[in-house]
Specification:
Elements lengths: L10 E8 L23 E8 L10 H4 L17 E7 L5 E9 L52 E7 L4 H17 L1 H13 L8 E5 L13 E5 L12 H6 L2 H12 L3 E6 L2 H13 L10 E3 L16 E6 H8 L6 E5 L4 E2 L4 H6 L11 H16 L4 H16 L6 E4 L2 E4 L1 H6 L3 H10 L3 H13 L13 E3 L7 E3 L9 E2 L8 E3 L4
Parallel strand pairs: 8-10, 8-11, 9-10
Antiparallel strand pairs: 1-2, 1-5, 3-4, 4-5, 6-7, 11-12, 13-14, 15-18, 16-17
């Protein structure tokens, strides 16, 4: 699908919790291998825009993926951000960005110094509920006192094809501030986003609200943004991963991913789970990418996915992890992000000598990452570009000589992977023998053959020396004219040059 037929945002949803609707007489819940009864609270769509029909009904359970048997187990603080991913039959991903908030009418409307006086919503501005929530009372009526709305946590959700993490998390702060005034103010913003053409990387663009539904509010009518760059993982936040796991455990997790194991990340913090899952897949550089099941946050009601025979990388809330452990499944790499523990390599593989040592010549990768962690703790900033450069150098060392094994047979370009593996030093060779039947390695072979059918083909793992461009303006997110509500980068911040060289 081309950018001309896409929009920055596909859909906005506001999701809440309610008591489950009783099943019709004679109807039962579908069978499941996961122990535990039905939740005491179920998520549902309060409002959505635009209304996309039954397809949107899959979203609510991802907005409240943890144990909802009691509201005490549900994260309600506004600091909770997390993401989920839908993958269609063509392998295209749609990202869901979520932010937990207190209930719409009862929460403190003056939080973070946002002035939002109580306003009467004009009749023409009221937004009707979506068809999937036609029986739900509007938040603009007194019916919200029934215990469903006004007292339970809610979740703002944005669906989009674009994994612009910094942009969308900042966008949800703006959405929440507009929601404090009224839902029509949110719909105004979403409408403008849908109508805005997709900007080029690093371009500054404006979102302007032409005809506000509520004219006497203090909200800005124009917002300024910068589209983030997709080069060199500039928008990836590695900080949660490196603060949750030691470098040694990160490398073991990376090895488990390269070997395509069943991997489950778990934590009490949904933000940590989804952030670490995304950071993990970001360590796989093209042509290597995670080809199998990838679910940054798996809802509790879908834990059967963890029984899949194919490789997967799944994140779960701690309440779901406790259920999964009761299933006594073998062959899963459990990663506890709260205690820096993982059970890899498996004890039986170590005992029988089948475990393969991760190929890190002279511990260069580990030592470089450990030094970056030391530096990051001093500055409280993890340099994504440097982390990416370090891993890219490792890929170059392990796979960079593949061009010597490209041959032409019968007019076809063929990569002799057997000879490529055979010619490697001991530890890389054993590692490559382990992964050579994986989907990722097959993709690597296919890409080698595809690229080298072209004239002047470049090495897939060439170490670049690039100037990473920044926009002329250092203003990234401008909330209108109020300087107190602006997030800016220092005008004195220097442009930087990233030079990546092998060890």
């Amino acid at each position: 699908m081309s950018n001309s037929t896409r929009s920055i945002v596909d859909q906005f949803l506001l999701v809440g919790l309610r008591k489950p609707t009783p099943l019709p007489e004679g109807q039962q819940l579908p069978p499941t291998t996961i122990p535990g009864g039905a939740p005491a609270w179920e998520p549902f769509v309060i409002h959505c825009f635009p209304d996309l029909g039954p397809k949107q009904n899959r979203v609510p359970i991802f907005c409240f993926p943890e144990d909802t048997s009691s509201l005490k187990t549900v994260a309600t603080t506004w600091e909770v951000y997390f993401t989920f991913v839908f993958t269609d039959e063509n392998g295209e991903r749609q990202f869901g960005f979520c932010r937990r908030i207190a209930s719409g009418i009862s929460r403190n409307k003056l939080r973070r110094n946002v002035s939002a006086p109580t306003l009467e919503v004009p009749e023409k501005s009221k937004i009707a509920p979506s068809s999937s929530a036609s029986s739900i009372p509007s938040i603009f009526t007194d019916e919200s006192k029934d215990g469903v709305l006004g007292q339970t946590p809610e979740c703002i959700c944005i669906l989009t094809k674009y994994p612009w993490f910094t942009f969308h998390f900042k966008l949800m702060e703006i959405i929440e501030e507009r929601y404090m005034v009224g839902l029509p103010c949110v719909i105004d913003l979403i409408t403008s986003l849908i109508l805005t053409p997709i900007p080029r990387e690093n371009d500054i663009f404006n979102i302007k609200i032409e005809d506000p539904s509520i004219t006497n509010s203090v909200l800005p009518t124009e917002y300024e943004f910068v589209r983030p760059s997709s080069k060199y993982l500039a928008d990836v936040n590695f900080k949660p991963l490196f603060e949750s796991l030691s470098v040694q455990n990160i490398l073991l997790l990376f090895q488990a991913m390269m070997e395509e194991h069943h991997i489950i990340l778990h934590s009490k913090d949904l933000t940590k789970v989804s952030s670490c899952a995304h950071a993990c897949v970001s360590l796989l550089f093209s042509p290597f990418s995670w080809q199998s099941i990838y679910i940054p946050v798996l809802p509790r009601v879908l834990l059967d996915y963890c029984m899949a025979p194919v490789p997967y990388l799944i994140g779960v809330h701690e309440s779901s992890y406790k259920l999964l452990r009761k299933m006594n499944q073998e062959g899963i790499v459990w990663v506890n992000l709260d205690t820096n523990q993982l059970n890899y390599p498996f004890q039986e593989d170590v005992a029988n000598g089948t475990h393969i040592t991760f190929p890190d010549t002279y511990n260069r990768l580990r030592l470089s990452l450990e030094q970056m962690v030391v530096d990051a703790k001093k500055l409280d900033v993890y340099d994504s570009l440097s982390i990416a450069a370090t891993f890219r150098t490792w890929y170059s060392q392990i796979f960079g000589n593949y061009q010597q094994f490209i041959k032409t047979e019968g007019g076809r370009t063929v990569f002799d992977k057997d000879e490529f593996i055979r010619q490697q030093p001991k530890y890389p060779r054993r590692f490559l023998e382990r992964i050579n039947e994986s989907q990722m390695f097959e993709r690597f072979v296919a890409k080698c053959e595809e690229v080298h059918t072209q004239s002047n083909a470049k090495n897939l793992f060439a170490i670049p020396t690039e100037v990473v461009k920044k926009p002329e303006s250092n203003l990234y997110y401008n909330y209108g004219k109020d300087k107190a509500a602006s997030l800016t980068h220092s005008s004195n911040e220097p442009r930087f040059k990233t030079t990546i060289t092998p060890f």
